[in-house]
Amino acid sequence: MKLDVIKLDGKKAGSVDLGEDIFGLDPRADILHRVVRWQRNKAQQGTHKVKTRSETSYSTKKIYRQKGTGGARHGDRNAPIFRKGGIYKGPTPRSHAHDLPKKFRKLGLRHALSAKVKEGNLVVLDAATAEGKTGALAKQIAGLGWKRALIIDGAELDAGFARAAANIDGLDVLPSKGANVYDILRRDTLVITKAGLEALEARLK
Predict the structure, then answer these.
(1) Within 10 A of 198 (CB to CB), how many other CB atoms are there?
(2) Burial degree of 18 (CB within 10 A; 0-12, 13-18, 19+)
(3) Rounded to an integer, what is the distance from CA 176 to the centroid of its chain?
């Protein structure tokens, strides 16, 4: 599968061959869903917490005598049955992460890349370099018509380009090792540099 390579000014800079085993798959929603769910659950903080009866601030004195009152027997006011008492079996800090095989995660990334190719939203960029000026880069991005885009570069990001792109709304820049299914799917346009293509193909072989 051949795709044209462009520069940031919109001019053509040759073409590249995309591997069918990475960019030519028939995307499956169930695979993408499982990988995105794994990513989001792993990122969830899990810091929700309630106080149990041993942590609420109240007297631990027995509220009235055990027998002879005609009412139910009680200990202190921290019991879950009372207002402002401790919570029974409430949420506690925990990890929401679950396991997903590495082979399946790689498969999910292949399907995400193939989905962008099938939609016609994959762009190959010659190189992601800039002088560090946000205004100049923003004009180039607007000229290319990228409103919500993710740019994946090689192993290292160009410092000037990363600095210029930092304040552009709707533009994300990642090194190849940071490429993931969730970020690819949440942006309308996927832009991969030639260096990024080589790194991704090496990673997914």
Answers:
(1) 15
(2) buried
(3) 14
Record the tokens describing residue 192, joined without a space.
Answer: 């991969």
For 6-46, the pLDDT digits (tens) are 999 888 988 999 999 999 999 999 999 999 999 999 999 99
Q: Closest Cα to residue 109, out of 42, 199, 194?
A: 199
> Looking at the structure, do residues 182 and 131 belong to the same domain, yes or no?
yes
pTM: 0.83
Interval 36-75: pLDDT, tens:
999 999 999 999 999 999 999 999 999 999 999 999 999 9
Q: Are residues 181 and 86 in the same domain?
A: no
Q: d(Cα 78, Cα 58) in Å, to the nearest integer?
A: 6
